Structure formats: structure tokens, C-alpha cells
Amino acid sequence: SPPHWCEEPILDRSNEVYALTQALGRIRKSCSVLAGLKNIPAASADKNHMAYWKLANGTATGPAAMLVVLDFSPSPTTDKWSFSLPAAPMDHGVLASTNWVDLLDSQRTAVLATPAAGGSPSLQVDHSPGPAHVAIFVDAKEAQQDGTWQVCKAGAAKLPPLPKAEECNSTFQWMTLVGILLFVGAVIATLVKNISTTGVFLCVVREPSPVEILEYPSPEKVSIEEPKHIFCAAIEHTIPDRKVKVSAGGLGKVLDQMLREHPPGRLSLVHPKFAGVDYGPLDHFCTLEVTVDMQKQAVQVHTLQSVEGDITRVWYLLEHSWFETQISKDSPYPYPQTKLSVLRFFSLWNQAIAEVLKLLKPDIYHCMDYHAAMVPLYVPPADQIPMIIVLHNADYDGAIETDFISDVFWKSVPAIRRLSLIFNLDRQAIRKYLTFEGRFNMLWGGIACIEENQRGHGICTVSGKYAAELKRERTMFKGLPAVLPLDNAIDSAADDGPKTVDELKAQRAVSKKALQEFCELTVDPQAKILIFIGRWVKQK
User: Could you report the per-residue pLDDT of 340-354, keeping only the tens digit for each?
Assistant: First the structure.
């Protein structure tokens, strides 16, 4: 409940300002003559105050005239004041009233003085207004008591009754005071406890320190108690037995080496089935049904299997018209992501992977980059399994600016509602798992699930320096306990035997000259040459 007036000094009803404001309001309502717009100045020899007459029109009820006095002197005085009457006072009934009273202070009175022949009548005030510096005079017969002030008798009946004085609730006051003291005490105790266990240190850096790279055990030191069933999903893929290779860069090479160097066990790989690629004979595994943008979509799943040493490799190829029309061997990733067809592609892709995962029930889900990072959102809590995300390039994170999507339906509904329909997820899941820094972000879906289910453990990158860079510079990874390095494997090159430093320097000089001549550059042994090998894109 709100505090009583008397409990708050600013709102105290006994406050002089509040009382004067209330009195002026009730006087204004009861005296209709004050509503007139015409003010007639009342002259006075004293220049420290301003006075004017308010005269009633012919139809008004109540007093015929009223005098309003505003005193501007620093402090009230007891000097008598004299105010001139309006012109033709008989016409306004002013001379009919001889005794006047201040409505704000009944002890302050005025009388109508008639001078000797030849002089003008005036209104004589016995003393100046009080500390409020304001006075409103009216014929004493027209005044009626109203609290500690008076109002016009003619309009008093229209005034609402004065509110009764409220009594302070001392119990409430004590409860409030005790609550405040307890809160302040808790804050002070918390500060004292934290100060006693923490410290503030000033660190002056004189030279840069090397980036700290997390140490992790080598494969020889890791003991595998039993074969694991690893589940991996990627758009790029390679099937050595069928001489199939769909690759856009380093990810395809990593998959190729995984098939040869993976620890013993079962490796299940899910890929889209590309048009124009000869996969050879395949076995039908199952037919999946998923919902994309409120439409049912059927996905055919084909499979083939081979064994490499102690690794059982099983491929699951997803067949759907979108996988045949939106991607190709030469351009394996759909683009641009502001097209609805691309969003539907990733919805179908992630939902289909989740359905296969629920059927196979593997031990670990190995996710590469953002393309399949939303899979855990389609797996019920009872079927959740440990997940790792290996980031080959975190600049590709599946972030989408929904403002650039051109679609009539998109403009007519909120973006989050439209995304929930496309990805077959409720709006709460979109907000919680797929919105990062105000934008829809597919990679954040996987990272948020790892934070929630695995306390943030399970994010890897392809090198130690890149792991340190992500933790240092990218807000998406700052809250994680660690970003682990998982160096990309590299096939050994043919070795032509050991060489000394001088032999290597001589070979370098010969190779540098040959390169400058081949590229038609100026042959200069001191020139610096930068060689870049990679795709010419912003992220590289």
C-alpha cells in the first residue's frame, strides 16, 4: 500500500505548500468571479506588490467583486495598504460592501474608506499578507469558513468534502526501517566478504608475452577402453571405395584423413546426395519425414559400408530434391543465406541428421562448423548425446540478417515467428539457442547446447593459435571454459634426406631466383616474397 501522507515529508498534508495549494483550488471553484478573464489593476503607492480587481458579469452568482493582492517584498510588513477602486464602482457594487475579509486568513481584513470631498474612495488593508505573500479579499457577507481558510458562500455547496486527516501507521514505518537496515547490512556484509578474499593488482606490461596455448595429451597417451560409435555430419564428403570426392577446401581433406586415421570403432557419416555424382549401387536404409515451413518433406536415406583396418565406416546419404538443385559438386554450399530456399535447406538438413542420429544412437556427435550445429535442438532430452564442434573457420557461423530477406509473408509477421515456422522450432528455442547479438546464428545453436549440457566443454579448432585467438577476440567464445586445439592432420611429404642449414639456405636462394624469373619479377635476392595458397575470399 502507498505510504501515508504524514509518513513522507514531501507529501505531508500538514505541509504549508500543500495546504495553500488546496485552499487556492477550492477558492477558485467556489468563486465564479475569479473565472473572468478581465483583470482591472488596483493602484497602490507601494511598488512591492501587485493588485487587481476581478469583477462579475451580469449573470454570475456570488460576490460582485474581489481583490487579489500579490506581495513581492522580501518579508511581510505591518504597514497599511491602500488600493484604488475600479472605475464606476457603483456599477459593480463595490461601494455596497464596507467590510472585506481575506479568504486565506480571516484575521486579515480591509475596509472601504471614503475620503473628504473631492477624493476617490479606496480599500484600506489593515496589514500586509502573511508569509504566503498572497491575499484574496471579498465582501465579508459572501465568505464562508472551509477548514482553516474561507471560500465563497455561493459556490461552497458544489465543493467536495475535505479529506480527513490520516493517522500514521507506526508499525508500517518500523517494518520499512527494519527492511532497509537489513538490506544495507546484507550489502555491507557481501562487500566485506568479497574484499577479504579478493585483491586489486596493478600490472605494467613492458613487453608482449607469447600466446598461451593449452596443452593436450597426444594420441599415444590416450587410452581407449572400447570402440566408440562416432557420428559425423558434413556437406563435403569423400568415399574412397567409390572414388567420390566433394570438397571445397580443407574440410574435405580432413574427412579423407578421418576415414584412414580415426581411432578403432564405428564411424557413421551423414552427407547429402549430390546430383551428377556417381555413388554406385546403394542400399536403402529408411525414409524420413520432417516438417519445413509447415510442409512435410520426405527424405530418402541410402547407405553403404566399408572397413579400413579397425575402422568400420558407414555412409548415410540423404536424397531430396533440394540437395540436388541448390548445391552441386562445384558449389557444395547453398548461397546466399538471405534466400528463403537456403534457410529451408538448412532446416531440412539439420532435421534429417537428427532423425538419423536418433535411429543410430551413437556415442558421440562430431559436428564440423555451423552447417549441422542445430541438430541437438531436434533431439529430445532423453536421446541427447555428447557433442563436439570442430571449427575450421569460425568466420563462417551461419549468421543471418533477416532484414535483407525478400518475402511478402516475412514482412507481414515478426521475423522470429517466420524463423520458427521455417526451422520447425518454437519461438522460445529460437530466442534462447539461435539468437546471438541480435541476429539469427546457426553456430550459436550448437555452442549454446554444449554450454547447457556439457558445461561448455566440447569446442575445438584446427590449431592451438587459432583456439587462443577465438578465446581472446570473439565474444561468442569468451564464456567457454576452454577452446581446445585439434591440429589438422597433414600427409607426410617425400623426404629427400637430412640437410644442413647452409644447404637449405642455398636451396632457398636458388628456388627464390627461379620463382622471380617464372613470375617475370625483378631478380633480387633481398626482396620479400609473400606466397598465399587458399581461396580468395574475405575469411581467408
Answer: 889 999 999 999 999
